[in-house]
Amino acid sequence: MVITIDGPAGAGKSTIAKLLAKRLGFAFMDTGAMYRALTVKAMRCQVRLEDADALVSLAKNTHIDLLNEPGKPLKVLLDGEDVSEAIRSVDVTNNTFYIARTPGVRHVMVEWQQKMGLRQSMVGDGRDLGTVVFPKAEYKFFLDADFKVRCRRRIDEMRAKGQDVDEEALAKDLAERDHQDTSRKVGPLKQADDAIRVDSTNMSIDEAVDFMFLRIHQK
Ligand code: DC
Q1: Does any domain span residue 112?
Q2: Which domain holds residue 46?
Q3: Does the residue 214 lie in any domain?
Q4: Number of domains forming the structure of the chain
Q5: pTM exceeding the 0.70 threshold for the entire prediction
């Protein structure tokens, strides 16, 4: 069984998908982590991020895997190396746009994700899972929240990790990412027609997970 959760940055997708997967005993597939991991490799190899052909050939020569171990955070493996921390840097976050906008790279990613979906039951989070990667997923959710609330959550998350936050710059970056995600020609962020919309603006994480869990058990 595949459950998809799509939505904009900062809506709480990863946290909620992770908890829902745990509750259902399913694997968790963080597709954003896969785009980020390829960005790490492109930066390390000094591939020109505007060079679509180079990015596609890099993708074809890369192995990215997501390791779900019971009771442990998801491990993101780039050619066997654990890059779970490296993929969260600000530089990687900002450069992932180049990777995500390249149609040939998305094609490779979608194939990897579909293969992972065949291996095991899973909850996946991303932008195009309900529309492109798993159009026949058993359950689809589109998770959204007010822009200001999404900013606030990101700020709190970063502060909790002891990072300095420039609130204005963060809001600008998030607005830019929304624009990039929705205006991309291939695999843009879009609610699938048959997805259930969940507005988490006034919901706690647990409330959102409960809501989805109940919907899955109701149908
Ligand atoms: O969910 P995230 O912030 O970790 O995603 C990182 C980037 O990857 C973000 O810029 C959008 C992109 N992405 C995508 O294009 N398609 C997906 N299925 C998942 C993420």
Answers
A1: yes
A2: 32-120
A3: no
A4: 2
A5: yes
Same domain, 45 and 99: yes
Question: How do residues 6-65 score in pLDDT, each as one tens digit?
Answer: 999 989 999 999 999 999 999 999 999 999 999 999 999 999 999 999 999 999 999 999
Residue with the bigger pLDDT between 163 and 101: it is 101
Q: Judge if 89 and 195 occupy the same domain.
A: no
Residue 63 lies in a domain: yes
Choosing from 30, 31, 134, 154 the residue with most ligand 1 atoms within 8 A of its CB, the one to mutate for a pocket test is 31
Measure the CA–CA gap between 168 and 165, rounded to whole angstroms: 9
At residue 202, what is the residue type?
Answer: N
Q: What is the pLDDT of residues 132-152, one digit of tens each?
A: 999 999 999 999 999 999 999
Burial (0-12, 13-18, 19+ Cβ within 10 Å), 215: middle
Residue 217 lies in a domain: no
- C-alpha 120 – ligand 1 centre gap (Å): 22
Residue pair 19/113 in contact (Cβ under 8 Å)? The answer is no
Task: Give residue for tokens 């390829």.
Answer: 38
Ligand 1 midpoint to CA 1 (Å): 22
Nearest CA to ligand 1 atom 2: 32
